[in-house]
Automatic annotation (TrEMBL):
Signal sequence segment: none
Stated name of the protein: 6211_t:CDS:1
Region described as Disordered: 241-260
Organismal lineage: Eukaryota, Fungi, Fungi incertae sedis, Mucoromycota, Glomeromycotina
InterPro entries, alphabetized: IS1016-like_transposase (IPR053164), Tnp_ISXO2-like (IPR024445)
Domain ISXO2-like transposase: 89-217
Length: 260
């Protein structure tokens, strides 16, 4: 894993050494207000603040929930519930197609330097649902590359985007046109690594999709972006249009752990 702007374990421990350091760090990063005082619940406040920083940090460097529980003294259930809240907090909108024990996921990734990505669960695999997801997540004027799934046939006549496809039953890259969807295909294995098999279902998968996209989009600046997300969650609502632009691979997959 590339650390980017993530502090070292020693730097985090220095913040966690005292109550005053914990509160000062939270205030300096505008996560809590400067004038916050709590004389009667000081010990409880210290524990909450310490867990906040340590949990976010350990999750960011991808320590398992069980290990985080052992390191912090909290139950795995408590850690897992808090990690789910983190995923919801940092989640954004994204896209490509693959079912997961009855859940299908559709996603796309830019062919740009930023390689922004989106992944979305989809309840119905009909043309209308698929085209609506593409419309909501891909900028007009983008060139879209897909496989030959029937639902993609009307991308150009209905959405107006230039559209090319590749016949995956014959080859991964069309030898004549050069069209492929390898840019997005490589992300499905990454998702399988991130998402435990037991969580690849309708009830549990969404937070993991949000985490995957967030880590991809902000690689190299995860710590700074997480602090901003915490700040926005507590104090500021930050809304912006962040649709992927330019050339976009769009495909779907079945993320069934029984399949290769």
């Amino acid at each position: 894993m590339t650390r980017g702007d993530i502090p070292t374990r020693r730097e985090i421990q220095e913040i966690l050494e005292s109550e005053s350091e914990v509160i000062r760090w939270l205030q300096d990063n505008e996560i809590i207000y400067k004038n916050l005082t709590c004389h009667q619940c000081k010990n409880e406040m210290k524990q909450i603040n310490k867990l906040l920083i340590e949990l976010y940090y350990l999750w960011l460097i991808q320590v398992s929930p069980k290990s985080i529980g052992l390191m912090t003294g909290h139950s795995t259930t408590t850690i897992t519930n808090n990690i789910d809240k983190i995923r919801q907090m940092i989640g954004s909108q994204y896209h490509r197609r693959k079912p997961v024990k009855g859940v299908w996921v559709i996603g796309g990734v830019e062919r740009t330097h930023d390689r922004r990505i989106f992944v979305k669960t989809i309840n119905k695999r009909d043309k209308e649902s698929v085209l609506q997801i593409i419309k909501d997540n891909v900028e007009k004027g983008s060139i879209i590359y897909t496989d030959q799934w029937k639902a993609y046939d009307d991308i150009t006549p209905i959405l107006g985007n230039q559209h090319g496809n590749v016949n995956h039953s014959k080859y991964f890259k069309d030898p004549e046109t050069g069209i492929h969807t390898n840019t997005i295909e490589g992300n499905w294995n990454g998702l399988k690594i991130l998402i435990p098999a037991r969580n690849r279902n309708k009830e549990r998968i969404e937070p993991y999709l949000l985490e995957y996209v967030w880590r991809r989009q902000y690689q190299g600046q995860l710590w700074t972006t997480m602090i901003k997300a915490i700040r926005n969650e507590l104090l500021i609502e930050d809304k912006q249009d962040d649709k992927p632009k330019m050339e976009v691979d769009v495909t779907g997959t079945r993320d069934d752990p029984k399949q290769p």
